[in-house]
UniProtKB/TrEMBL annotation, chain A:
<protein>
    <submittedName>
        <fullName>Branched-chain amino acid ABC transporter permease</fullName>
    </submittedName>
</protein>
<feature type="transmembrane region" description="Helical">
    <location>
        <begin position="12"/>
        <end position="32"/>
    </location>
</feature>
<dbReference type="GO" id="GO:0022857">
    <property type="term" value="F:transmembrane transporter activity"/>
</dbReference>
<comment type="similarity">
    <text>Belongs to the binding-protein-dependent transport system permease family. LivHM subfamily.</text>
</comment>
<keyword id="KW-0813">Transport</keyword>
<dbReference type="GO" id="GO:0005886">
    <property type="term" value="C:plasma membrane"/>
</dbReference>
<feature type="transmembrane region" description="Helical">
    <location>
        <begin position="215"/>
        <end position="232"/>
    </location>
</feature>
<feature type="transmembrane region" description="Helical">
    <location>
        <begin position="136"/>
        <end position="157"/>
    </location>
</feature>
<feature type="transmembrane region" description="Helical">
    <location>
        <begin position="90"/>
        <end position="116"/>
    </location>
</feature>
UniProtKB/TrEMBL annotation, chain B:
<dbReference type="InterPro" id="IPR017871">
    <property type="entry name" value="ABC_transporter-like_CS"/>
</dbReference>
<protein>
    <submittedName>
        <fullName>ABC transporter ATP-binding protein</fullName>
    </submittedName>
</protein>
<dbReference type="Pfam" id="PF00005">
    <property type="entry name" value="ABC_tran"/>
</dbReference>
<keyword id="KW-0067">ATP-binding</keyword>
<keyword id="KW-0813">Transport</keyword>
<dbReference type="InterPro" id="IPR052156">
    <property type="entry name" value="BCAA_Transport_ATP-bd_LivF"/>
</dbReference>
<keyword id="KW-0029">Amino-acid transport</keyword>
<comment type="similarity">
    <text>Belongs to the ABC transporter superfamily.</text>
</comment>
<dbReference type="GO" id="GO:0016887">
    <property type="term" value="F:ATP hydrolysis activity"/>
</dbReference>
């Protein structure tokens, strides 16, 4: 039983990270209809920046907030400079740009910081009173930090005029312009926020998976699955989907272990959990193509 | 006197296709002018060209100031509110959010509150549906919402694209009554595009008739209304 709770708890910690990346993907998707394949690599790059700042002697949290701020500005600039001229370009050109961005982040990080795996620090204390048996200190910290970030974003989008303008621009850009909203800037701001949220996810996960230029590849896949599971057009759904995928993959591994122990047959273990989790996601999507919480998209032609 | 809106040599293009040919007209401050014409005459395009929503050549001046080539949102911020064809509802946002979007350009929350009350005074039905998702409103309510969204911009000029479209006669009457009040009480000038010429000529003081992208007729509403030739050849009633 305790083992099950442990698995669920660490699943929640992973899920929190998928949820952040999923939300970053959705934020850009709702306003552009594109999936930013470079989201994970951008987050990885942000994590390296924070690592570098820590190496230079900065306090963890100062480096953390500096990396978030730098990522935000970089996100805005990427949209304004690289993507803005492509607003009316065909989908394939935009995908090529995303893949190019991914490759650039990856190879620049590799060149500057090498492909060697690095340890990444955790800002959280070693021992957590009371919970110590059930959830690691870092995992608990990850859940708390991501929940904080997600709530902040929720409040921003729900209750501030700027958040409302961003939602309006995503939902109906033509009408938003007619309401005086600078839609192009809202898009750039969305890129900035997505990059910032991705940076948080990268810095939280790096202590668990270690820092290297390819550390986000698998995570992006999980996050994408989470976003699809929850409904790619629904930010709240994507967050829930991210958490669900995190818990699901650990439950799969737990079940595999239990079966092996009980019956002595090996069916699934840690190696297969990604596959099984994705199979479950695909099954759900076959039954409910717009995701669990997504709206059916009706396109007028 | 300077005209509130002055349009000269206005041409508009969709890709290679030209939709307007040297359209010219002027709106007086405080008045209501209607733009009439058959389907495809270029009425919607004229409104879009004023707000720079299509590729445009020519000269548009608002309050004596040239606005040609400015971004749509900047023109809107100058005081030109466009109530578009199809109403432009933000379907997934609530009624209140639809109305508050415009507030983002204004900042002052006390003023916004006052304007919301003013809008609800014009359209009490919207107050009852304030937390409802706007996409679930009826057509008439969405048209009221579109007019209200424009009002929240505190415009000096409203461009209205077929506010009667697809609505039952009673609702149309209600909306047109409110439009007149808005014009008189809030001193908002209007450029009204309509298929329903009789209705529009009742509300407006001036009329222009468009045919295949050109102005073919202009004059005070009373003259246009009573000229059987114009009615027969251009307005079809
Ligand atoms: N998005 C577009 N792309 C290409 N051509 C267009 C587009 N919109 C309008 N047109 C063309 O421009 C011309 C003028 O159209 P417009 O919509 O301005 O007419 P309208 O007077 O508003 O008609 P209606 O009363 O039917 O709304 C038409 O020939 C139309 O086919
Ligand atoms: Mg039209």
């Amino acid at each position: 039983m305790e083992q099950l709770i442990q698995q669920v708890a660490s699943g929640l910690a992973n899920g929190a990270i998928y949820a952040c990346v999923a939300l970053a993907l959705v934020m850009i998707f709702v306003s552009t209809d594109h999936i930013n394949f470079a989201q994970g690599e951008m987050a990885m790059f942000s994590t390296y920046i924070s690592w570098q700042l820590i190496q230079w002697g900065l306090d963890y949290w100062i480096a953390f907030f500096a990396a978030v701020a730098i990522s935000f500005v970089a996100g805005v600039l990427i949209e304004r400079i690289v993507l803005r001229p492509l607003h009316t370009a065909p989908v394939l050109s935009i995908i090529v740009v995303f893949i190019g961005l991914l490759a650039i982040c990856n190879s620049v990080a590799g060149t500057v910081w090498s492909y060697l795996i690095k340890e990444y620090p955790t800002p959280f204390p070693k021992e957590v009173f009371g919970f110590s048996g059930l959830i690691g200190a870092h995992q608990l910290g990850v859940v708390v930090v991501t929940l904080l970030v997600l709530s902040l974003l929720f409040v921003f989008f729900r209750y501030t005029p700027l958040g409302l303008a961003m939602r309006a621009a995503a939902q109906n850009p033509v009408s938003a312009r007619l309401a005086g909203v600078r839609v192009d800037w809202m898009l750039a701001l969305g890129w900035g926020l997505a990059a910032a949220v991705g940076a948080v996810a990268g810095m939280m996960v790096a202590h668990i998976v270690y820092l290297d230029p390819n550390m986000m590849a698998g995570i992006l896949l999980y996050a994408f699955a989470g976003a699809l599971l929850g409904g790619i057009s629904s930010p709240g759904g994507a967050v829930l989907g991210g958490f669900m995928v995190g818990v699901l993959e650990n439950l799969v591994a737990y079940l595999g272990n239990a079966i092996e122990k009980g019956f002595g047959v090996y069916i699934i273990g840690n190696g297969e959990k990604l596959t099984v989790a994705l199979i479950i996601v695909i099954t759900v999507l076959t039954l409910k193509p717009s995701g669990l919480f997504g709206r059916v998209v009706v396109k007028r032609v | 006197m300077v005209a509130l809106l002055e349009v000269n040599g206005l041409r508009a293009f969709y890709g290679q296709t030209q939709a307007l040919y040297d359209v010219a007209f002027a709106l007086e401050q405080g008045g209501i002018t209607t733009l009439l014409g058959a389907n495809g005459a270029g009425k919607t395009t004229t409104l879009r060209a004023i707000c720079n929503m299509v590729r445009t050549e020519g000269r548009v001046a608002f309050d004596g100031q040239p606005i040609t080539g400015r971004a749509t949102e900047s023109i809107v911020r100058l005081g030109v509110a466009h109530v578009p064809e199809g109403r432009g509802t933000f379907t997934t946002l609530t009624v209140e959010e639809n109305l508050r979007i415009a507030a983002y350009t204004r900042g002052r929350s006390a003023e916004v509150k006052r304007d919301l009350d003013q809008v609800f005074e014009y359209f009490p039905r919207l107050r009852e549906r304030i937390q409802q998702q706007a996409g679930t409103l009826s057509g008439g309510e969405q048209q009221m919402l579109a007019v209200s969204r424009a009002l929240m911009l505190r415009p000096r000029l409203m461009l209205l694209d077929e506010p009667s479209f697809g609505l039952a006669p009673l609702i149309v009457q209600e909306i047109f009554r409110i439009l007149r009040r808005i014009n008189e009480e809030s001193k908002v000038s209007m450029l009204l595009v309509e298929q329903n010429a009789a209705l529009a000529l009742d509300l407006a003081d001036h009329a222009y008739v468009l045919e295949t992208g050109r102005v073919v007729m202009a004059g005070p509403s009373s003259v246009v209304k009573n000229d059987e030739n114009i009615r027969k050849s251009y307005l079809g009633y």
